[in-house]
Automatic annotation (TrEMBL):
Residues 57-300 form the AB hydrolase-1 domain. SUPFAM superfamilies: alpha/beta-Hydrolases. The keyword Cell inner membrane does not apply. Residues 324-349 are annotated as: Disordered. Coiled coil: none annotated. Keywords: Hydrolase. It comes from Streptomyces ferrugineus. This is Alpha/beta hydrolase. It holds the Pfam family Abhydrolase_1. PANTHER family: ALPHA/BETA-HYDROLASES SUPERFAMILY PROTEIN, LIPASE-RELATED.
Length: 349
């Protein structure tokens, strides 16, 4: 494995505009070369030595930046890294053009094997939730705990608001969409994404919105942006149709790691009704509902997600930061509904 650290603040003249990637204060970004893929890995140095490693995996159209707020919350609890899946964020496309769930899971496994960081606390959102479920099922030796935020697991009745995203998998639809939206500005696109993914788009700060627009402008210039989106959406839809031992729900049954399930009550992409099935399927699970959250609770309510994650750590015997020890799920469940109001609904058997 070869690794090259990327500068956090390159001179404007040193890199082409399309290559500029935002790195938050306290974060590092490096490029890791592996067989068939090159991955961009975002990390945040832990507050102290000896903390357990954690790896965060983003969803469709996202990047490692989606985890920056949560990583900052958890710097006293785990040694966090977040990966850009092939074709997303600052990771180039895979050499073989394979964007299936299995290929994305293979990329995560290759990185964990090469970095020798496992077993890790593995966290996934949306598409990343499906990917990390597969990783936990096929390589239990690499996973200490599994945290899934609105995981994209198969639904029989897809929400109407999720249909446009699923249609990206249909041949020709992406080309039609790109022509239809040719005149849209980056600001319009970001507002559309936030309206779809946030329970309350107003929770995005002005700075966060500007950063998202800047990232959208950068990614729209990438020649493979729409191809990565389309093929990954197709890979997710194809995974929904798999049967037997490769079926995602069947693999969820095989997960041995203690699992934290977080679902948003205002999620327009993953039906909240699927939370109960998830709680029944993952054998050692705890289900938490955030009534006011949308599809990306770790971005909307990073403090509540962090508290629930610390509670998971405590339940598995992992140390948590002294400044927050004991807050855990009880504090989250005691929060006002207007602040996300975490509610533990159910536990897997």
């Amino acid at each position: 494995m070869s690794s090259t650290e990327l500068p956090s603040a390159p001179a404007a003249s040193a890199l082409p505009k399309v290559a500029t990637v935002r790195v938050a204060e306290g974060e590092r970004l490096r490029s890791v070369g592996l067989p068939g893929i090159t991955l961009s890995v975002r990390s945040r140095p832990p507050a102290r030595e000896g903390l357990s490693p954690a790896l965060h995996v983003h969803g469709l159209g996202g990047s490692s930046q989606n985890w920056s707020a949560l990583m900052a919350q958890l710097e006293g609890d785990v040694d966090s890294e977040a990966v850009d899946l092939p074709g997303f964020g600052d990771s180039p496309p895979p050499d073989d053009g394979d964007y299936s769930i299995t290929a994305h899971a293979r990329a995560v496994i290759r990185y964990l094997d090469a970095s020798d960081r496992g077993p890790v606390h593995l966290l996934g959102n949306s598409l990343g939730g499906a990917v990390t479920t597969r990783v936990a099922a096929v390589r239990p030796d690499l996973v200490r705990t599994l945290t899934l935020v609105s995981p994209a697991l198969p639904e029989i009745r897809v929400q109407r608001t999720a249909v446009p995203t699923a249609l990206l998998a249909v041949p020709g639809v992406t080309a039609l969409f790109t022509r239809f939206t040719q005149g849209w500005t980056a600001e319009q696109r970001v507002r559309g994404v936030m309206n779809l993914c946030y329970g309350d788009p107003g929770r995005a700060t002005p700075e966060g919105f500007r950063n998202a627009v800047e990232e959208m402008e950068r990614r729209l210039q990438l020649p493979y942006f729409w191809d990565a989106m389309t093929r990954s959406a197709r890979g997710l839809v194809n995974a929904y149709t798999l049967g037997g031992q490769h079926a995602l729900w069947r693999q969820a049954e095989r997960v041995l790691a203690p699992t934290l399930l977080i679902y948003g009550g205002r999620d327009q992409l993953v039906g909240h009704r699927m939370s109960q099935r998830a709680a029944r399927t993952f054998r050692d699970s705890r289900l938490v509902s955030l009534p006011e959250a949308g599809h990306v609770a770790m971005m909307e309510y990073p403090d509540l997600v962090a508290r629930e994650f610390r509670d998971l750590l405590a339940q598995t015997g992992e140390p948590v930061a002294e400044s927050v020890a004991g807050t855990g799920a009880d504090a989250a469940r005691g929060a006002a509904a207007g602040d996300g109001g975490a509610v533990t609904e159910n536990a897997g058997s």
